[in-house]
């Protein structure tokens, strides 16, 4: 399928395309064709042979589209210059394109660097900063370049004794603009780079060739074309099979179904009830084997693939952190503006008072004073805004995403990294995500005694050797390692007492050790049974450039099994075999076979198929050597008759594997003395299979499944430890889904399994009740997954979705974070995802959670540091400006520039570069509603702000008394005044430097230096800050309004600065409860002990509403209703029933006799109880003598019921309700 830009006319049509087809919404003019586009597309959504029959069958579709079943579209349709008519056979090319469109999907236009920069500039914090920067720059330029005389101060370096203060008021505004530019460039360049990486990743998959039959010419693909199917091909468009031979399709990427679906023509499948065969070809599925042709009925954006791609278009939401930071920015802007306005008002009052007390000032001096007041007020607002915050977020994300790329995580959407920090639910696909999407032999039995298991040490419960009572019985299969249970169908097998060993010759061995127990002759026989009786072959995957088996998944599993054991190559075995007859697979016999001529002119029949059928046709079985015994080295294959004991062993093995949802395949053979069998003539079309399939010898029974990816068990375990629940959503059947979920630890006590068709029919309140307990959603459609994600998000969960198939696209897009697979993932999945797992490893999700939490912590560390600095700066600016006679702050504009911009930028870089550690997984995720500031953060912000403010104000106002500096303002004491100001500035800076070290930890751990040696960025940046501060003091001079200070003053600055770390330790030792109580009383946080109000039973709401209406009419007295009284009395009297409550032995005739008015409430009580889920519970019957819980039976799932984990407590209210409701 070709992807290209869309025309303007097409865009309006495609905008209305929905994920699911509703043919009634199609109002397009389909003339001259009888079928509208969505009418045809609806045939595959869902696949419906009956709908096709309503249209008149495949022949009616051929006629309606003007297609010849053998030659395709007519030559008339190929000539664009011809005009069409009313007959579909004569429809023009233009008409066909107008009605059904073209096979082109619109590509998502990539944003240019300028567009990304413009989007970055729309951030609220940056907007506030931009406004503040413009105002500050304008006032600074006016102050410096407005023609006014520069301010002067006394100095010894000038002959006049006066020096001009540097005109640097404009620098602050310019510096803020530079900071904004850095933020925008870093963020947009990161997004642009990720976009380029994504385009490169998908570039090789952009186009797919489509072979069509249309007069032998290559043309644009159109509806009505006949397309060719070949093994290994990805189906590009939706269609209906016309003719084919043994076509098997893998629809796992489109529907999640792992079983191969056989494709047969409409006439053959219209009467079929099997769900394993149909006549529809779904775009995005893969042809495993067979060849044929099919007619295209939906292309481009009308196809299944195209509809999903179109459904992925949508606007992205703000991340939880972005939303909180935006709210914080607005709050800070309001508070800063209020503080600035208040300061302006106070200084203006002071200014007007001075107008009366000092009338000698010139108009220029008055204007200058007014501008100074305005500047200090604006400076206060600028100081209040945390301009380093967006830079901290961007740097943390950029640093994390770079590290994540090295761990095979390509982050397409930068903010998704941060969202993963607090992901509370992961909805994962099964096929290709938890599993390898590679059918594999995982267990089996050679002969009847040699039970082999793939990775036996990790899967000891997959062998029943030596277990006569079947410890792996219905409820104890599928263990993880040593004993994890799952619900399999209850199958009762009669066994002898535990002291006896019925099958004493059974033994277990690892699959890799199989060669040690079978003789060379048996090994060759086993290999030939696999390789010769197979049509699968190896080929290079065009997408991954890896060699893989093409054909039946079962045959591929068997060939891979032989390849793993290093048996003779299948190509060599096939070339050496002299095949005389092939028995193709059929659903009736559930087997396939081949007859070969042996070197001694005898013949051998190899057959494989359903084990429960073929084993009944076996009379003997091969014999294998026990561990410790040496297998025979001659060419003789030892066999033994199958007696009742052996047949019982076979049946027990098949049941055992079936309980684990393994697909069991039996491999058998039979030696023949002549060919063809007596009385059968294959050349005349007679089927020799009935004569061949008897007196067989059983070689092996193999158990096949799609195994877990390596490390998935541990990854799920770590997710649970991190407080992230994992839910499996798959299109596969419930038994397979339950098996995989149990193996990887998703299906746990208290959890439940449900099918998609049942789930989607639940009422809203039922979904809210079920979803928190739902662990496996089987047979789910793309819409079911999307509904699940939407409901989880509505319940306040932060949802991540993983998947690799086309069917995962809508849920990936709807989720807060979508993960797709870089190797096996389809374009739809990648386009919809936020993060691509380059190695297709579910385990990498744990790394994403870890790095996400690292980003969140980095932002919070910086926020804690930034606010403590800014709060201190605002307070001291306000207090000292009001107290100053010249309306000037203790910190000059340039000093504030250093503190507010340079140090914040450095601190952002330092605190944003702490590496992620496994310790981050030892806590639960934050809810969306969780406050941005934790109690620990708030304690530190308060403590550090109070300490820094107290230090600066004490030094400023009491420094003269403490250190003996002059504070008279005279020229001879000017130097001492400047020394004191320098000391205040220096102390403040060192206080914040040590505070940044203190902010490395957000918890109550006192060791703030833990891991500091692993973060070279932090150490280097801290040293740079100290170095620049030393340079400023020594050579800053008039620009920074500082002078050199003595060693004593340096010691004072550093020692007082170290006090910040002492304060940090003290605040960590103070219990959080004290602050929590205070914050709750001040309404700063929500009371954690306050329970949310939840309506436990929706039925009560309805009853309450009805009673309210009744109360308004009858005054609230139910017995006041004449209708109720008459109805009740009449029924009681009619049946001669006296219902009374004897009080103090008073007779019924007494005035004290009381008839209960509560009787009128009986219908309401019953209705309420039914609404709450109550139902009568029968004690038992012949069909269900024990009233067994259907959740323990797999059959319950096939009847649309809910299945709970067998270890769920019997007193569980939810289980009691749902198992009764679904009976």
UniProtKB/TrEMBL annotation:
First-level EC class: translocase
Domain Cation-transporting P-type ATPase N-terminal: 54-141
GO process annotations (BP): intracellular calcium ion homeostasis
Keyword Aminoacyl-tRNA synthetase: no
Primary site of residence: membrane
Annotated stretches, region: Disordered: 457-510, 1177-1223
EC code: 7.2.2.10
An example Gene Ontology molecular-function term: ATP binding
Stretches with biased composition (Low complexity): 1181-1197
Biased composition (Basic and acidic residues): 457-485, 498-507
Catalytic activity: Ca(2+)(in) + ATP + H2O = Ca(2+)(out) + ADP + phosphate + H(+)
Keywords on record: ATP-binding, Calcium, Calcium transport, Ion transport, Magnesium, Membrane, Metal-binding, Nucleotide-binding, Translocase, Transmembrane, Transmembrane helix, Transport, Vacuole
Pfam families: Cation_ATPase, Cation_ATPase_C, Cation_ATPase_N, E1-E2_ATPase
Membrane topology: Multi-pass membrane protein
Transmembrane segments: 125-142, 170-189, 331-353, 373-400, 867-884, 890-913, 946-967, 979-997, 1017-1038, 1050-1070
InterPro entries in alphabetical order: ATPase_P-typ_cation-transptr_C, ATPase_P-typ_cation-transptr_N, ATPase_P-typ_cyto_dom_N, ATPase_P-typ_P_site, ATPase_P-typ_TM_dom_sf, ATPase_P-typ_transduc_dom_A_sf, ATPase_P-type_domA, HAD-like_sf
Family: Belongs to the cation transport ATPase (P-type) (TC 3.A.3) family.
Function description: Catalyzes the hydrolysis of ATP coupled with the transport of calcium.
Name of protein: Calcium-transporting ATPase
């Amino acid at each position: 399928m070709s992807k290209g830009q869309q025309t303007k006319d097409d865009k309006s049509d495609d905008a209305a395309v929905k994920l699911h087809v509703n043919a009634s919404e199609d109002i397009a003019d389909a003339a001259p064709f009888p079928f509208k586009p969505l009418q045809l597309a609806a045939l595959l959504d869902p696949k419906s042979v009956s709908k096709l029959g309503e249209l008149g069958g495949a022949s009616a579709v051929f006629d309606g589209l003007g297609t010849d079943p053998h030659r395709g579209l007519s030559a008339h349709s190929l000539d664009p210059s011809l005009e069409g008519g009313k007959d579909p056979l004569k429809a023009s090319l233009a008409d066909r394109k107008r009605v059904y469109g073209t096979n082109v999907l619109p590509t998502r236009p990539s944003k240019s660097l300028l567009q990304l920069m413009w989007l970055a500039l729309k951030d609220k914090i940056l907007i506030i900063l931009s406004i503040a920067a413009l105002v500050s720059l304008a006032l600074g330029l006016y102050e410096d370049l407005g023609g006014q005389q520069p301010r002067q101060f006394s100095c010894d370096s000038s002959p006049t004794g006066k020096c001009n203060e540097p005109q640097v008021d404009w620098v602050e505004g310019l510096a803020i603009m530079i900071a904004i530019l850095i933020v925008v460039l870093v963020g947009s360049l990161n997004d642009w780079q990720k976009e380029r990486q994504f385009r490169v990743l998908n570039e090789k998959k952009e186009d797919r060739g489509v072979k069509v039959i249309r007069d032998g010419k290559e043309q644009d693909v159109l509806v009505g074309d006949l397309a060719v199917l070949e093994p290994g091909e990805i189906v590009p468009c939706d269609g209906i099979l016309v003719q084919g031979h043994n076509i098997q399709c893998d629809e796992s990427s489109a529907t999640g179904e792992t079983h191969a679906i056989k494709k047969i023509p409409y006439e053959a499948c219209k009467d079929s009830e099997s769900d394993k065969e149909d006549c529809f070809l779904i775009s995005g599925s893969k042809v495993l084997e067979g060849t044929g042709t099919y007619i295209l009925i939906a292309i481009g954006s009308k196809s299944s693939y195209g509809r999903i791609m179109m459904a992925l278009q949508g606007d992205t939401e703000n991340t939880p952190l972005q939303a909180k930071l935006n709210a914080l920015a607005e709050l800070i802007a309001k508070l800063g503006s209020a503080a600035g306005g208040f300061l302006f008002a106070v200084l203006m009052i002071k200014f007007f008072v001075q107008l009366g007390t000092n009338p000698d000032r010139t108009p220029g001096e008055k204007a200058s004073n007014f501008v100074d007041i305005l500047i200090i007020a604006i400076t206060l607002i600028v100081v209040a805004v945390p301009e380093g915050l967006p830079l901290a977020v961007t740097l943390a994300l950029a640093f994390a995403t770079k590290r994540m790329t090295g761990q095979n995580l390509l982050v397409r959407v930068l903010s998704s990294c941060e969202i993963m920090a607090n992901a509370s639910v992961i909805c994962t696909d099964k096929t290709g995500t938890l599993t390898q999407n590679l059918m594999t032999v995982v267990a089996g039995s050679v002969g009847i005694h040699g039970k082999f298991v793939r990775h036996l040490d990790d899967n000891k419960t997959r062998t029943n050797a030596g277990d006569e009572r079947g410890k792996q019985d219905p409820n104890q299969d599928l263990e993880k390692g040593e004993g994890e249970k799952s619900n399999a169908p209850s199958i009762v097998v009669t066994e002898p007492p535990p002291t006896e060993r019925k099958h004493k010759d059974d033994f277990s061995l690892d699959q890799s050790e199989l060669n040690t127990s079978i003789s060379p002759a048996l090994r060759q026989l086993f290999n030939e049974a696999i390789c010769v009786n197979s049509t699968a072959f190896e080929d290079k995957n065009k997408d991954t450039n890896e060699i893989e088996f093409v054909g039946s998944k079962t045959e591929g599993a068997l060939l891979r099994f032989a390849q793993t054991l290093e048996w003779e190559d299948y190509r060599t075995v096939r070339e050496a075999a002299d095949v005389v007859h092939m028995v193709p697979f059929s659903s009736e016999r559930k087997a396939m076979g081949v007859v070969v001529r042996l070197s001694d002119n005898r013949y051998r029949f190899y057959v494989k198929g359903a084990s429960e059928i073929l084993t009944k046709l076996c009379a003997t079985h091969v014999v294998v050597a026990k561990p410790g015994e040496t297998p025979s080295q001659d060419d003789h294959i030892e066999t033994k008759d199958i007696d009742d004991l052996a047949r019982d062993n076979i049946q027990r093995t098949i049941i055992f594997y079936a309980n684990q949802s393994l697909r069991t395949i039996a491999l058998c053979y039979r030696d023949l003395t002549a060919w063809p069998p007596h009385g059968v003539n294959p050349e005349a079309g007679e089927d020799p299979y009935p004569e061949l399939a008897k007196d067989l010898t059983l070689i092996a029974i193999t158990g096949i499944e799609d195994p877990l990816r390596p490390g998935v068990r541990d990854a799920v375990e770590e997710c649970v430890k991190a407080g992230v629940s994992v839910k499996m959503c798959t299109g596969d059947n419930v038994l397979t889904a339950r098996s995989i979920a149990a193996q990887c630890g998703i299906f746990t006590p208290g959890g439940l399994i449900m099918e998609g068709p049942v789930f989607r029919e639940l009422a809203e309140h039922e979904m809210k009740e079920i979803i928190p307990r739902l662990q496996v959603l089987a047979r789910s459609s793309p819409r079911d997954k999307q509904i699940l994600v939407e409901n989880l998000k509505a319940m306040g969960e932060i949802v991540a979705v993983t998947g690799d198939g086309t069917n995962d696209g809508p849920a990936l897009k709807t989720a807060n974070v979508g993960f797709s697979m870089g190797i096996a993932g389809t374009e739809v999945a990648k386009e919809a995802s936020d993060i691509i797992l380059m190695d297709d490893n579910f385990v990498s999700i744990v790394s994403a959670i870890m790095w996400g939490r690292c980003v969140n912590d980095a932002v919070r560390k910086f926020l804690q540091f930034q606010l403590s600095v800014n709060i201190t700066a605002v307070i001291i600016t306000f207090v000292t400006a009001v107290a100053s006679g010249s309306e000037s702050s203790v910190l000059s504009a340039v000093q504030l520039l250093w503190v507010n911009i340079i140090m914040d930028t450095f601190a952002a870089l330092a605190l944003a570069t702490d590496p992620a550690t496994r310790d981050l997984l030892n806590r639960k995720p934050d809810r969306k509603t969780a406050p941005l500031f934790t109690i620990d953060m708030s304690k530190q912000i308060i403590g550090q702000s109070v300490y820094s403010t107290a230090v600066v104000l004490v030094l400023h106002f009491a420094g003269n008394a403490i250190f003996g500096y002059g504070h008279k303002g005279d020229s001879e004491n000017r130097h001492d005044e400047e020394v004191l100001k320098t000391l205040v500035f220096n102390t403040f800076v060192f206080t914040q430097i040590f505070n940044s070290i203190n902010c490395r930890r957000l918890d109550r751990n006192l060791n703030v230096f833990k891991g500091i040696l692993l973060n070279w960025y932090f150490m280097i940046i801290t040293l740079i800050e100290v170095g620049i501060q030393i340079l400023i003091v020594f050579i800053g001079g008039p620009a920074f309004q500082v002078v050199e200070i003595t060693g004593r003053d340096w010691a004072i600055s550093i020692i007082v600065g170290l006090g910040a770390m002492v304060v940090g330790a003290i605040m960590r030792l103070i219990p959080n409860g004290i602050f929590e109580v205070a914050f709750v009383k001040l309404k700063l946080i929500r009371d954690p002990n306050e329970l949310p109000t939840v309506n436990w039973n929706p039925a009560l709401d309805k009853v309450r509403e009805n009673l309210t209406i009744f109360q308004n009419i009858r005054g609230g007295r139910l017995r006041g209703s004449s209708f109720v009284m008459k109805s009740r009395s009449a029924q009681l009297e009619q049946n001669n029933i006296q219902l009374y409550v004897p009080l103090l032995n008073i007779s019924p005739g007494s005035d004290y006799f009381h008839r209960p008015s509560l009787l009128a409430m009986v219908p309401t009580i019953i209705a309420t109880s039914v609404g709450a889920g109550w139902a009568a519970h029968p004690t038992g019957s012949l069909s269900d003598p024990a009233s067994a819980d259907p959740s323990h039976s797999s059959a319950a799932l096939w009847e649309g019921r809910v299945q709970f984990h067998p270890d769920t407590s019997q007193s569980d209210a939810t289980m009691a309700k749902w198992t009764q409701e679904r009976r």
